[in-house]
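Researcher: Structure prediction, please.
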Amino acid sequence: MAIPSSGQVSLNTVKNEFGDPNSDGQYKLSEYYRDGDNDPIPNSQTTVPASGAISLNNFRGTSADPTVYYVREGVGGTNVSFAQYSENQEEGSPANCAALVGFKIILSGTTIQIYSWQDQISDMDDAVYYTVGGTNTNHISYTSHTNSLLSYSVNTGTTSGYNCYYTLALVSGSDIARYYPQTGLTGMTASVVGQGVTTSGQGARFGYITLAPINDSNAESGYTRVTFTLFKSGSATYNAQFLLDLDTQAESEEDDCYECCVHTDMLVHTPLGEIHVKHLHIGSPVYSYNFDTGEKVEDKIIRKRYVKRNNEYKVNELKMTADHPVYLQSGRLASLNPEQTLSSYNMSVDQLIVGDKMMTANNELEVVHTIEKIEGEQPNYTLYTENGNFYASPNGDNAILVDSVVQEL
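Model: Predicted structure follows.
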């Protein structure tokens, strides 16, 4: 419940609403700044400052209600999310692929349950489900409404009378489409009138289907919030929020096409802050370096691709493929495998070694201290920008300028 808007408010009132921010048993008002990347204060509570002066009056009317959290992957009450990718590549023939997530809502006694599954028609997929606690589960084993994952449950205390509708809110990238429900389920509605929640269930699928002509490619990607609203006159209203972070790419190209990539753990330097590479999409704004003017400029992503590679290295803390060129002092390019860079991208670059100095977003140079091999196949993204480069880092501190070339076909 929310902190009262009037009357007495104490530090204990704040602690009872938002909990122990550091799990250390110490309660200081300065520990309760609003921070979109950390609990316990959600970004929606705008009366609470993110820094600077803070008082008990800032907390009047605020709430730890998880339905008002700014959605972050796998964090915050009823917000749950999917990171799903699918790819179809065929040489010399049209290609198609899909990244779809299905939902069904059913009544079980006095409990309303939402189940989810991945529903794809592609050669390759990579679907991950994030729980409210932030842990992930391989979602690939849940493939239909009869074999689906219980993702949300609420006891309403009544066996009938609840209706449900959904809303879509684009966070970034492209809008997802709604597809016909799985056979055996009533089609879910976006009308605020809603439809009755029954034991037979409502269903819908959301996502992308892409088609690519012969010798061509096509891709869609986006980050969308899906909210299911459960309501009944005179009863409590419930909002179950899901994030769908989806990518598809259909390419009628060589199946072993190499692309230089950065690891999925990396952050990219953008005008909106440091953003995980997997949450960027075609059209997303990023920073790049314009060598004609000698300055960092705002750019945009014009191609994004997911690739699994087994030639991953960590240079200081930057994770990337061995053939990925980085920019050194005075704009000189170097990679850990110049021969592969030349054969794959027709680029002649120097050997990257300990002691080299890499260009950064702060117009400084970072010295290469360590180079380590990362074993096993690793998930990566390749981004292509208009200037052909972007800044990447593991933690947002002074990102490294890296190239964004793709294989010349």
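Model: The chain has three domains: 1-64, 80-251, 262-403.
Researcher: Thanks, that helps.
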